[in-house]
Specification:
The chain is an alpha/beta fold. The protein has 20 helices and 29 strands. It has a domain of about 120 residues: GMP Synthetase, Chain A, domain 3 (2-Layer Sandwich), CATH 3.30.300. Strands 5-4-17-16-18-19-20 form a 7-stranded mixed β-sheet, sandwiched between helices. Strands 12-11-8-6-7-14-15 form a 7-stranded mixed β-sheet, sandwiched between helices. Bound molecules: 5'-O-[(S)-ethoxy(hydroxy)phosphoryl]adenosine (WTA).
Length: about 650
């Protein structure tokens, strides 16, 4: 740092490996030069308009963008239908026999669904919804496991102009009730249950509980029979509940799509804040579809005729909405859809799926990669992964070592890794490499995509050209959220007030000498150690940089001398001793790798870290554990037992050394 002013977030970690796009990718890449960046910089509205024209319109749009900060309207005057764009137009182009989804259930059941079949199913479901009184402009809640009917239900809503609100199948009945009530959903689509780690997990009882003493807007519940015999006691309420196979199967397979306006609501997706009331993020039709299709094509270098694409997220999160359903289908891609966990029946389940379907593009989260690192590479080695071409990462900062492991062991040193930064609110990928164009640096999301304006700013909102700060977006983008359902003020306050004229949603980032963006995690997690602002991400990356470490989570705990002290929770790889001496070695490693200021006060070894159900580490909980506080609401945790375990280990630690 020069001068005596301390940076908003300091920059400690230096990563100097880099990987230019290799010839194999460049030979067939959609893009191998900077032309799209230049085109978009010259006139970003014209650039997005050209992308929007790739869609099929019933009525062309008249204006590209009207922007009354912070409210954007894209492609007004146009009419289109999202399900038509995802289905009919491919079938009409003669691609009805192309596979849309290879579905694999956790128990091993398989189903291949072509575009023509998907269109039929969606049409029947759309007609079923219409027969139950669902109209254009209504909302429908969806609460399902990862089965094809989930995607079918979403597309059926889009077809008839109803907005869907998907609630992740792992959420509680209270969470479901709150979301149903906020959206005043007319119909709920659910299932008797799904499979998880070899066990049937009932879902319908949660749906019933959500509608008991609440959720009065719901007139009907449609229930998919996924478990069948394995859920013999599924109760159906007379007059309200209907089996999917009864109400959908008999419908005609022709369902005219509604001609929606560009800015009509396509869906709501609630962000699951751990403390605050969930926010119903609003996404509308044309802009969203434009940007998810564009990014899905270019970020993954999609060749829809030959690629087999697999996004291993859950459809219940935005990643699934944009990159399992709307993006891939709008592009006529063939996808894998997998219901279950990565370790059932064995820890090689993913690799056997990749081998079976000859997956060419894999998109997953750093948490999955770090779990595979922990399990060891022998699970991959027995499988033929040579079909893979492009690897993607999303959801959290990916530590450089995890990135390199992903490239080496999954990609066998042949596949580019694209680290994609975005959010539920952005709707689509914003910062990411392009495989045929960008020289990659492990752990960096590299550059804003063509058409996107992003800058790192300091506390006063001044752009930073090198070093750490707040990640802001400087201009509207087509897939941006249009607001928070029913609460325009909260929208303005939450995203547009911290830095006037800029969108800011809580992430820190730094820029290196070459202008690469490095995501530093949530600014709420930034630690203050003796007046230095240290990002959790950098200390975690320094820990994962040690060959024995698979995963690490770092928090700042109140400390009388230094303000905050760094406490690190560390998961080591299989077969490594987790003892005091090793803890010492890791503390030293961090000090050498990034500096003595970042040396953790304590290392707490753990087999698992507390994570949200979408796989993000819950640092708030770890802070509470470190400071011996009451843990409050832990219902968003994927595995409750992890925290208890950590609490007892933290209690064994000396408070100060
Ligand atoms: C984090 C998921 C670093 C970030 C699409 C963001 C990332 C939040 C990355 C949004 C990435 C997502 N590198 N951090 N590549 N991708 N994040 O709404 O903190 O579930 O704000 O959307 O995840 O999470 P959400």
């Amino acid at each position: 740092m020069d001068g005596d002013e301390r940076a908003t977030i300091e920059d400690f970690f230096a990563e100097d490996r880099s990987f230019p796009p290799d010839d194999r990718i460049r030979e067939s890449a959609l893009l191998t030069d900077a032309s799209l960046y230049e085109e978009a910089e010259a006139d970003f509205e014209a650039f997005w308009a050209a992308q929007a024209r790739q869609l099929s319109w019933f009525e062309p749009f008249e204006t590209v963008l009207s922007w009354e900060l912070p409210f954007a309207r894209w492609f007004e005057g146009g009419r289109l239908n999202a399900s038509y764009n995802c289905l009919d137009r491919h079938v009409e182009a003669g691609l009805g026999d192309r596979v849309a989804y290879y579905f694999e259930g956790e128990p091993g059941d398989r189903r291949t669904i072509t575009y023509a079949e998907l269109l039929d199913e969606v049409s029947r479901c759309g007609n079923a919804l219409r027969s139950l009184g669902v109209e254009r402009g209504d909302r429908v809640a969806i609460y399902m496991p990862m089965i094809p009917e989930l995607a079918i239900a979403m597309l059926a809503c889009a077809r008839i102009g109803a907005a869907h609100s998907v609630v992740f199948g792992g959420f509680s009945s209270e969470a479901l009730r709150g979301r149903i009530e906020d959206a005043e959903a007319k119909v709920l689509i659910t299932a008797d249950g799904g499979w998880r780690r070899g066990q049937p997990v009932a879902l319908k009882p949660n749906a019933d509980a959500a509608l008991e003493g609440g959720g009065a807007s719901v007139a009907h519940v449609i229930v998919v029979r996924r478990l069948g015999e394995a859920a013999p006691d599924t109760a159906m309420k007379e007059g309200r509940d209907l089996w999917w196979h009864e109400v959908v199967a008999d419908q005609p397979a022709h369902c005219p799509p509604e001609a929606m306006e560009s800015e009509d609501l396509l869906y709501l997706l609630y962000t699951s804040g751990t403390t605050a009331r969930p926010k119903g993020i609003m996404h509308t039709t044309a802009g969203y579809l434009t940007q998810v299709a564009f990014t899905h094509r270019y970020v993954f270098d999609l060749h829809p005729e030959t690629d087999v694409y697999w996004c291993a997220a859950d459809i219940g999160w935005v990643t699934g909405h944009s990159y399992i359903v709307y993006g891939p289908l709008a592009n006529g891609a063939t996808s894998v859809l997998y219901e279950g966990t990565p370790d059932h029946p064995g820890r090689d389940r993913w690799w056997s799926i990749i081998e079976r379907y000859k997956v060419t593009i894999l998109y997953c989260a750093p948490t999955a990669i770090r779990t595979f690192m922990k399990w060891g590479s022998e699970h991959l080695e027995a499988h033929d992964l040579s079909s893979l071409r492009v690897l993607g990462s999303v959801g959290e900062p990916i530590n450089p070592e995890a990135w390199v492991w992903y490239r080496q062991h999954v990609g066998r040193d042949r596949c580019p890794v694209v680290d994609t930064w975005w959010q539920t609110e952005t709707g689509a990928i914003m910062i990411s490499p392009l495989p045929g164009v960008t020289t990659l640096k492990p752990g960096s999301a590299t550059f804003p995509l063509p058409g996107i304006g992003a800058e790192v700013v300091d506390d006063a909102g001044r752009p930073v050209s090198r070093g750490g700060g707040y990640l802001t977006l400087t201009r509207p983008w087509p897939a941006m959220l249009r607001g928070i359902y029913g609460d325009p003020e909260r929208y303005t306050e939450t995203y547009w007030s911290r830095f006037p004229g800029r969108y800011f949603a809580g992430d820190g980032a730094k820029l290196d000498d070459d202008g690469y963006f490095w995501l530093l995690g949530r600014v709420d997690d930034v630690m203050n150690v003796s007046g230095h602002r240290v990002s959790t991400t950098e200390v975690e990356s320094a820990l994962v940089d040690h060959p024995s470490v698979a995963e690490a989570a770092v928090v700042g705990a109140t400390d009388a001398t230094t303000g905050q002290a760094i406490i690190a929770y560390v998961t080591v790889k299989a077969g490594v001793a987790a003892d005091g001496a090793h803890g010492e070695e890791l503390r030293r490693h961090v000090a050498t790798r990034i500096g003595p200021i970042a040396r953790p006060r304590a290392i707490i070894f753990t087999e698992d870290l507390p994570k949200t159900r979408s796989g993000k580490i819950m640092r708030r909980l770890l802070r509470d554990v470190a400071e011996g506080r009451d843990l409050g609401d832990t219902t968003t945790l994927a595995d409750q037992s992890v925290v208890e375990e950590l609490r007892s280990r933290a209690a064994e630690q000396p408070a100060e050394e």
